[in-house]
Amino acid sequence: VQLVESGGGLAQPGGSLRLSCAASGFTFSRATMSWYRQAPGKERELVASISRAGGSTNYADSVKGRFTISRDNAKNTVYLQMNSLKPDDTAVYYCYVLQGNYWGQGTQVTVSS
User: Fold this and answer.
1) Alpha helix positions (H), 1-113
2) CB of 92 within 8 A of CB of 106?
3) Is 25 helix (H, G, I), strand (E, B) or coil?
């Protein structure tokens, strides 16, 4: 199983970033996919999840209305569109597969002026 995140970087407060997670080694369309994040000195927390067909999504209260999770089962990829970024969104963002408990290597997101 491989989960490769990309799209992280430096953004200004109020800006946007789009994370991608390219998956391989399992049947992507049968997997619930999630994004987690971990800020320095804090525990890893769930940011958003999406069901196998994409019809159901869940978000942490802290990102509702700002972040959107989506997936393309034809491309075996899950996305996280992050808008109206805040400094508190600074963290390493991880892609996660519920079925099998697999993690990506993480991508750093830094929100700073």
Assistant:
1) none
2) yes
3) coil
Gap between the Cα atoms of 40 and 19, Å rounded: 19
7 by DSSP, 3-state: which? coil
Place of tokens 């525990």: 43
* Three-class SS state of 3: strand
Q: For residue 57, what are the contacts with CB-CB under 8 A and spacing of at least 6?
A: 48, 49, 50, 51, 69
What order do you get walking across the sheet with 77-82 strand by strand? 2-6, 17-24, 77-82, 67-72
Q: Which residues of 46-71 are buried (b: 16+ CB within 10 A; e: fewer)?
A: ebbbbebeeeeeebeeebeeebbbeb
Amino acid in position 58: N
Average pLDDT over residues 32-46: 97
Q: Give the pLDDT confidence of 54-98 residue by residue, as tens digits.
A: 999 999 999 999 999 999 999 999 999 999 999 999 999 999 998
Q: Which residues pair with 82 in a beta bridge?
A: 17, 67
Whole-angstrom distance, CA of residue 87 vs CA of residue 6: 20
